[in-house]
Every structure is written in structure tokens, then in C-alpha cells.
Amino acid sequence: MAYPNPTPAQRWTRFGILSVIVLVVNLPIILMVMNSFQTTDQLMQRSSLLPHDLTTANYSYLSERTNFWRYLWNSVVASTGSTITSAAAAALAGYALSRFRGRFVTTYSRTLFIVQMFPIILALIPLFILFRTLGLINSPLSVIILYTVVHLPFATWMARSFFDTIPRELEEAALVDGCSRFGAFLRIVLPLSGPGLAAIAIFSFLFSYNEFFVANVFLRDENAMTLPVGITMFMQQYSTDWGSLMAAATLTVVPTFILFLGIQKYITYGAVSGGVKG
Amino acid sequence: MSAVDLSRSEAGTWRASARAWWRTGDALPFLLLAPSVLLILAVIAYPMLTGFWYGFTDGSLLKYGRFVGLDNYVELITSRDFRHALWFSLVFAVFNVVGCYALGLGLALLLNQDVPGRPFFRVALLLPWIVPSIVSIVSWRWMMADERALFNQVIGLFGGSPVYFLSDQTWAVVMVIAIKIWRSFPFMMLSLLAALQSIDRSLYEAASLDGASRWNQFRFVTMPQLRNISIVLALLMTIWTVNDFDTPWLLTQGGPANATENLVLLAYRYTFGRNDVGLGSATSFVTLIILMILVVFLLRRQKER
Q1: Shortest Cα distance, chain A CAs vs residue B6, angstroms
Q2: Which of A48, A79, A191, B66 could pair with A209 as two cysteines, CB 3.0-4.6 Å apart?
Q3: Which range of residues forms the domain containing residue A35?
């Protein structure tokens, strides 16, 4: 802050404090990962906090005797589908918000706020009844449609902030050369916002992959469940089988971590500037 | 004859003006927004209207109900479960907002200083936020699973007797709030850190020239600068907490004895547990109204800035 030149001692004290905080804050996750290499018997003895006699027994059990891969596949299908639809819809809408003014655009911008705060339970009840008559319960299509809309505000704001950084002069030059406005968007703006669109896509994927509530309502058959819903089956069926439960949770979190590391530098764009600035 | 000619020429001008609308590019914003608008109509507007109607009927998930007037709302207001859910939603939101704001601000202030490895700390502190809800609940549950779990071992070190966190009503509430704070503080931290970094440094220089102590700089420079964004963040977090299903459901399923049941869980239980679509819709509509009030405040705040 206002004291610009801290001594090395001060800097390393802060370093120490932050290291301890990071450890404490992430303790639940760290313990979960370590304990996934212990059998449930070892875990119940609880002879020490740190694991000993590491074993991958939980992971082979998970792979061979449970629906884990099925859940993972369902998660990938639902997340990929909703990523494509929401990135496409958000790119178009984000461009409109970035380049056009007028009552329609402003109203839409306001509507996104309503969408963001909307209690999803209110949408789930009528949609459950509708989807049941349409035969969409237990179909990935049901969650894909829901996720697309749930992600729309965030993805649109993020797309807008990327398009805002692309100078309008480029499009104007294209217009002079006889390009249509939409053509200028497709050929000039879109290719330039590649990294931004990739970040939006990964965010959408991450959110869909993590999502529990909607999937829990629409995917009721065990063969249709995504990972977060599938794991709750472990909690019920194998209620004391902590080993498998923690192995399943650990494997679930691996794709989340990888995707997150890829986009963490963009996170301020969407989450913060989107949600807060509007 | 002449009438036919007239309509044909009208159609012709309509088509011509549509073509002109398209060619000048005036149509473009509408077309760009069309897919999103259609999706929002289908997933938000349609359920909102039908849900409003369902609130006045006595249907189930399998068959449409009859119109019963305000019966559902009367039953709701007179039910203890509803009043409790309303109360818990409030407690949940207030404690979570205060808790994650304090934690987020503290960490943002720490991270805003000159520290070796700052990018690493920033990322490492975001993990609780990006982990799937089910994973965070599984990991926390293990730490309080039974009398020999980590928390109880720590309590034992201080000579306390074991606590059954999930079967005790007060402790269940405390744990739901604690986990929610843990899952929410990184967002606060990230947003406040961005705000801190945008504060003009010359304000601090002026303050220290005037001999302001560090605490006074925080109080009279930092906090006023953060005031607006803090209000926006608090409102956003309140909305998200009222809407939260995952934390209480996955940890306690609303129990023990409905102690951790908020409005969303109650609506879910009415609809999918008791198969009472009318009561469930009425409950979620009340939730919507409460959130609408918060959004009005939020939008007004943002306009002021």
C-alpha cells in the first residue's frame, strides 16, 4: 500500500503467513486427496493424520466395480454440449452489447441480471413437468438447455469485455472494403477474439462439469447421472466406504484443476468485471 | 380487385423495408440477440409464468391441478416449516455475507502487498471456490464424520467431549454456514483485490504526507474507496446464498429436523418429496419476490456509480 519498500524480513514474514493460510484453507482438499490412497479400514483406525502404506485399491475398485466411468462420460457429454451452445449464444449477444446501443440492447442487458439472480428452483418445477411430457428426463439435452441459460449472463459479459478490447477501426475498414457488418464480425472480430472465446468455453465447461442441483433434478437414472450426482450414490449406497468416496471425489476434481489452471488469469474478466460492473 | 392489389403492394413495401432494415445493418443487434432471447424465454420466462400459475393450483408432478385460489399461499404463511425456512435463509445469508466479506477483505489486503510468490497464493486461495460442491462437502464431511474425526480430535486435545456436528441442530447450522463461507470467500477476495489495485496510489501518498497512520489510511482512504463495490458484492452474495441448494442439501439434506432447510430446499422438498407442485411453486415464487427486492437495490446502486 503506502509503504512502498518493505524490508526482506517483512516480505518473507508475509510469505510465511500466507503459506500457513493456504495450507489451512485447503486442508479439506489436501486431506481428501491423501486419504483416497487409504483403504476404508485404514481410515477408520485413524492411527495418524498423515497416510501410511499407500494403496490404490480404492481407484481400482472404482474403475472396475462402479459406474464411475459412465458418470464421467455423461459429465463430458453434458458439459461439451452446453459449452458449445452457451459460447455461441454468448459470442453473438456479447458482440451486440459491445457494439450497439438502443432500448432493446439495454433491456436485454437488464434481463441478464434477472437471469443471474433467478431462483433456479422456480424454473425447475415447470420444466420438469414439460420435459417429462417431452421425454427429456434422463436426457443430457435437459441439462444442456438449462446450463446454457444459467451461464449466459456470465459468458455474455465476459464476451463483451473481450470485444470491447478490439478496436472498431478494424471493422470500419472492412465495411469500407464492402464487407457486411455481420461479415466483419465473422471474419475480423471473431478470429481476433480466439483466446477470449476459448476462456469463455473453458469457464462454461467448468461450471457445467461442477454443477449439481439441475443435474440432480433431471438426471434420475443411474445410467444418465453426471459425476456430481453419481458421487451422491456412493454416499448413500456405500455410506461407510470413505475410501471409494474420497477416490471418486479426487478423480472428479482433477479435470476441474486442470481447466482452472488454464484460465485463472482470465478469471477477473468474467467473474469480477461481469458480475460487478454489469 | 383493388383490395387484393392493395394488400399485394403493402406486402411488397413491407418486404422492401425489411430488406432495407437488413442491408443497413439495423437488424443486426436483434439477430445477434435472438438466440439468447429465445433461450431465456424458454428457460426463464415460460417457467416463471407457469410457475406463477401453478402456485394457485393443487397439481402434482404427474397431473395438472385445479385452481385453488390463494390456498397454497395461506398454507405456506401459516406453516412452521415455511417460517423456519425464511428465518434460516436470512441467518444463512447474513452470516455468510459477513463471514466471507471479512475473510475476503483480509486476504485481499494481504495479497495486495509485496509478497514473494504472490501469483501462486492468489491461485491457491481460489481453490475452494472452483472445486465442485460435492467434492467440498465430501472433504469437509470427513473432518467431522464421527467422534474420532479430525475436528473431534482437535476438540479432544483441548479436553472437550466429542461433538456430533451433523446430528446436532445448532452445530449443523454452524457447519453449513462455515462451509458456505469457505466456498464463497475467494470470490470476495478476488473482487476486492481488483478494487484495491484500482485505488489511486497518490491518495495514500497524500495521506502519509499528512502523517496518517496505517490504520487511519485504511479507515479514511481504503474503506471509502471500497464502499460502493462492497455494497454491490454484499448484495450479489446475498442473492447467491439465498439461492444456494448444494451446501445445505449435500451436507445435511436440510436436517436434522429441518434445522438447515432454506427456502430453496423447502420448495424442493414440497415439489419432489411431497409431490405438491402448487406448494412448491408458491414457495419458489416467494423466493423470487425476495430476490427481486434485492436486485432492485443492486441495480439502483450500479446506476449511481
Answers
A1: 32
A2: A79
A3: 8-58
The reply to whether A206 and A251 lie within a common domain is yes
Cα–Cα nearest to A3, from B68, B257, B263, B114: B114
Cα separation of B57 and B66, whole Å?
5
In one-letter notation, the amino acid at residue B165 is F
Question: Looking at the domain assignment, is residue A168 inside a domain?
Answer: yes
CA A278/CA B94 separation, integer angstroms: 24
Residues A200 and A85 reside in one and the same domain: yes
Give me the CATH number covering residue A114: 1.10.3720.10
Q: How many domains does chain A have?
A: 2
Say if CB B97 and CB B241 are below 8 A apart.
Answer: yes
User: Any idea which of A89-98, A133-142, B5-14, B204-213 has the lowest mean pLDDT?
Assistant: B5-14
Express each pLDDT in A266-275 by its tens digit.
776 655 554 4
- Summarize the confidence of residues A232-250 as an average pLDDT: 81
Query: For residue range B66-105, what is the model confidence (pLDDT) as tens digits?
Result: 898 899 999 999 999 999 999 999 999 999 999 999 999 9
A53 and A71, same structural domain?
A: no
Contact (CB<8Å) B54/A125: yes
In a domain, A2, yes or no: no
**SS3 at position B151:** helix
Question: Are A177 and A107 found together in one domain?
Answer: yes
For residue B169, CA distances in Å to B38, B116, B164, B181, B294 come to 44, 44, 10, 19, 29
User: Measured between beta carbons, which residues in chain A are less than 8 angstroms from residue B140?
Assistant: 28
Backbone angles phi, psi at B224, to 5 degrees: -60, -35
Distance CA B54, CA B64 (A): 9
What are B131-162's pLDDT values in tens digits?
Answer: 999 999 999 998 988 888 888 888 988 988 88
- The answer to the question of residue A72 being in a domain is yes
Q: Do both A140 and A264 map to the same domain?
A: yes
Taking the CA of residue A119 and the nearest CA in chain B, the distance in Å comes to: 6
Note whether residue A3 is domain-resident.
no
The count of residues in chain B is 305
In Å, how far is B253's CA from the nearest CA of chain A? Answer: 12
By percentage, how much of chain B surpasses pLDDT 70? 93
**Position A74 pLDDT exceeds 90:** yes
Residue A49 and residue A138 share a domain = no
From chain A, the residues in CB contact with B299 under 8 A are: 110, 113
Query: Is residue B67 helix, strand or coil?
Result: strand
- pLDDT given for residue B2 in this prediction: 45
